[in-house]
Amino acid sequence: MRNSTPWWIRIPVLFFLIFGIMEYFVDSGAQPAFIKYPIAQFFLLMILLILIAIELIVRSIENVMFQTLSEEAKERYLNTQAKSWEWKWGKRMYAKLLGSRPMREEGQLVLDHNYDGIRELDNKLPPWWVYLFYATILFGVVYLARFHVFNDYDQKLEYEIEVADAEAAIEAYRKTAKDLVDVNTVILLTDASDLSAGKAIFETNCVVCHMADGGGGIGPNLTDENWILGGGIKNVFKTISEGGRDGKGMIAWKQTLKPAEMAQVASYLLTFQGTTPANPKAAEGEIWVDENAPEKAPAESTADSTTVAMNK
Length: 312
Ligand code: HEC
What we know:
This protein has helices at residues 7-25, 33-36, 38-68, 71-82, 88-98, 127-149, 155-176, 192-205, 207-210, 232-242, 259-270; strands spanning 110-115, 118-121, 226-227, 286-287. It has 312 residues and is mainly alpha-helical.
């Protein structure tokens, strides 16, 4: 095996090449394929064993062939084997990129001027440096054309796109981590599955005081526009989570219910709004107006809905 790479380079290079190709083609989501699919580890192990096996087979073939050689040929073969391997291509490339002339040619490079015995070698600029410089010029031209002539996009747009992406990612994350909601982030849920879950929670925990239709009993009427502790999803969530005023009987449900469940039951009980219960309890508290509701509030209103109509 004259002039070929030694096995300790050949095997790892081939192995990682196959590894990379496998990772590229196997769709394994966020995790690398060899972690997600244990079979991939087995596959890689097999590849490694096969590579080693091929190596061993080639060795033994060489060995057998060697035995068939004449004495003189054996010697020649051993001589070539003894030459230590060097990475010719790499060395040539390195010398080329450096571009320096060998020492013995320096005589031709010396410039005429001579300052107190100090002379100058007129070496060429190293090619790696020159190519890099050309590359920066090319980059500059493309950049100038793209952003200053054709106005592809500017930093503001780039920022906005990234913010939008991040918000979409947060939104997607919230969907998988529903219990992350709190009083500031809770939104009115409208999915049928959330509402029916909310209904079930309401019927187990809340009907004793609020009645199944929200008409009210010990607790106030939940069907009217009047709220003691503020209406709207944020206030209602807060009331459920933290409880009502001391001594009134509405406990803080955050001990019993998960944040996602409180959001579901809050969304469910808000569907009572405007319905007519069988035995409505008289309205208590203030009529609650959502300042953020688009049809009622002017667009420039930025007040937080939680600041509105708190009980006095
Ligand atoms: C032991 C009786 C009782 C139970 C059980 C109860 N509540 Fe209440 N609830 C009350 C009382 C009493 C109030 C009024 C609190 C106050 O005046 O501060 C109230 C108030 C509320 C309010 C605020 C109404 C307003 O006008 O501001 C909401 C919303 C509410 N409850 C939801 C629930 C939910 C959801 C459940 C079940 C998880 C529940 N309650 C279980 C007694 C109860």
